[in-house]
Amino acid sequence: MDRPGCVCFDQYEGAGMGHDKSRSSVSVGTVDWSDPRLNDLLHKVDSWNIEQRSQVSGQDVEVRLTGGWNASPVSKPAVLMSELDETLVLTTRFPLPHGEEVQVTKQTGVRWGVVVQEREGHRAGDREQGVFVNWLRVRSR
Q: Hey, how many other C-beta atoms are within 10 angstroms of the C-beta on 26?
């Protein structure tokens, strides 16, 4: 049910990355889109980037595409920035293809994952260094 001026979570149901949390019929209240304070706030936060890489240097790993048309016998260097909740966050000097299966070889063993998101890095120097941030959903083998 649409209500003018109301943003309801049920419009975004299923939009999260693998989270199946239904919030139908939950309202966040009415929004006065013509309020100049809201416009000022939106302009202030427009250039914000949420950097999800931790401040640690990460762990050197090797990645190899193992499925699809891009499968390769050659491993390439990457940096494992985070490993939480069955998600691996890697930085690479090349984009990993969305939806491809990737083998990640760490000092402690091998993990496999599927690329669920990838983007250019937002930190200072990332663009000049050609850094890409890649999120992999861990897959057991």
A: 9
Tell me how far CA of residue 54 lies from CA of 59, 61, 84, 86, 122, in angstroms: 12, 17, 12, 16, 13
pLDDT tens track for 114-137 = 999 998 888 778 888 889 999 999
Most confident by average pLDDT, 20-24, 71-75, 93-97:
93-97
Single-letter code of the amino acid located at 124 = A
Token digits for 37? 């304070």
Amino acid at 87: T
Say which residue the tokens 């250039």 belong to: 47
- pLDDT, averaged across the chain: 77
Answer whether 0.70 is exceeded by the pTM.
no
CA 30 from chain centre, in angstroms, equals: 30
Res. 11: pLDDT tops 60:
no
CA diameter of the chain: 57
**Rounded to an integer, what distance in angstroms lies between the CA atom of residue 42 and that of residue 48?**
10
Nearest to 136 by CA among 114, 106, 121: 114
Give me the phi and psi of 37, to 5 degrees please. Answer: -65, -35
